[in-house]
Specification:
single chain, 153 residues, mainly alpha, 86% helix
Length: 153
């Protein structure tokens, strides 16, 4: 029969989760690199092509669906990178954490507000161009994180 984890099991479970994430860090970082690359090169530029009358329907749907792919990867990457800084404490881990934090900051303080504005107001060419331009910062940050992950591998 299934039983709930005891309080004493939590450190063991957390340790197993962090070990799993650390063993798969290169895969997680590669997935983020591919995802942000697709967004930079294909998805955001396509925003320009979507007719204004269809944008209001399409964009919120995109935002809801992309979250199912992006958020688990971002959380896994942050957990692994933070724990690597704590347990390894080397310069590469710290540099990777800085890049991941930059990507998170741009995501939540620049990209997400742009998306909320597009949902609220509909298609706005200036906001779309800002998304494309500022997404380059995330692309560079997550590319750097992948490079560091490869070196650490």
């Amino acid at each position: 029969m299934f039983s709930y984890a005891r309080t004493t099991d939590i450190p063991i479970i957390m340790s197993l989760i962090l070990e799993f994430l650390h063993e798969h860090a290169l895969s997680i970082d590669f997935a983020m690199f591919i995802l942000i690359g697709l967004v930079q090169v294909i998805v955001y530029p396509v925003f320009r092509e979507i007719p204004t009358d269809r944008f209001a329907e399409w964009h919120p749907r995109y935002c809801n669906l992309i979250g199912w792919f992006v958020l688990p990867l971002m959380i896994a990457q942050l957990l692994d990178t933070t724990s690597s800084c704590f347990f390894l404490g080397d310069d590469l881990s710290s540099a990777k954490l800085i890049l991941v934090i930059i990507a998170w900051l741009v995501t939540f303080f620049i990209s997400a507000p742009c998306h909320r504005r597009l949902i609220r107001e509909g298609k706005n060419v200036q906001v779309v161009e800002r998304l494309i331009r500022t997404n380059l910062w995330r692309t560079v940050a997550w590319t750097g994180a992948l490079i560091i992950s490869y070196i650490q591998y």
